[in-house]
Amino acid sequence: MPHAGTDGPSSFAAERRVAVAAAEATGRLLRGHFADARAVRTKGADGDVVTDLDLAAEELILGRLRRHFPRDRILSEEAGLLDTGNRRTWLVDPLDGSNNVAIGLPAYVVGIGLCLGETPVVGVVHEPVTGRTWHAVSGQGAHGDDGTRLPGPRGDLPGPGPVLAWTQGHAVGRADPTATALRSTLERRCRRVLQLWAPLLGWSLLARGTIDGFVGYRAEGVDLPAGALLAAEAGVELRTLDGARFRPGYTGPDTRRSFVAARAETLAYVLEEVASAMRGSS
Question: For residue 5, what pLDDT band results from cuts at 50, 70 and 90?
Fold first, then answer.
């Protein structure tokens, strides 16, 4: 029997519509109050911040999800797990890029995903600064708000080397030898490595084909499935650091959430450089 509010057992059209509308409403809130954002507390030992906008944005999204899908679980960046016992879990990052916002840097997005078990089936990323939205449904491709299908990166290796995004989890220390080796190698061997402080922004760039690849080390779980689904539905290949197939789950230890995302020649090149870095760090 289809879940209440869906268009069928596997279409997820209603879920996509609700998530897009919630993300875009949240984007309007964030855009309107960006200049007034203030940090209300820190979390973790690395100085990560929570702003008043994180909390307001989260309240808006959670209210909409609970109204439309009251039986679903929700795992949100600030509120934690709101457990109903359902295997359908919404993952909410209401303001991905809080540290950027706290210093007045307009590089942030809203992310909402839906997983069945550990498998992402809906992913939405909205960029308040431009008002653009990108969304994906498993098996149905990734699209922009104008309906255009996202192309993903070309996959051929650019002459000066690929442009990559990089992310690492909050638990990774500054002196972590693997992270240090990976970043150092990639910065030497690639044209540019972007450290955006907003992983979902990196995933959207990759799905749109404006960067060539993405490397993550012990990534955070809340925003990973939605972003990875967006890229995968745009034709990006997802691999572990040793080249095996990568499954973007959100539970379990963060050691399961290290990845390389790219295509074709670029993927082979980045995996080779990652392998070299890993050998050097051992």
Answer: very low
What confidence tens digit (pLDDT) does each residue in 19-34 have? 999 999 999 999 998 9
Backbone angles phi, psi at 186, to 5 degrees: -65, -40
Q: Cβ contacts of residue 182 below 8 Å, gap of 6+? A: 215, 217, 274, 277, 278, 281
| Count of other CB atoms within 10 angstroms of residue 5 | 15
Rounded-to-integer distance, Cα 117 and Cα 135, Å: 20
Residues 6+ apart with CB under 8 A from 148: none
| CA–CA gap between residue 163 and residue 43 (Å, rounded) | 31
- Work out the burial of residue 236: count CB atoms within 10 Å of its CB; fewer than 13 is exposed, 13-18 middle, 19 or more buried: buried
pLDDT at residue 42, as a whole number: 63
- For residues 210 and 122, give the distance between their C-alpha atoms in angstroms, rounded to a whole number: 22
Q: Which residue segments constitute the domains of the chain, with CATH numbers given? A: 13-144 (3.30.540.10), 163-281 (3.40.190.80)
Distance CA 169, CA 172 (A): 6
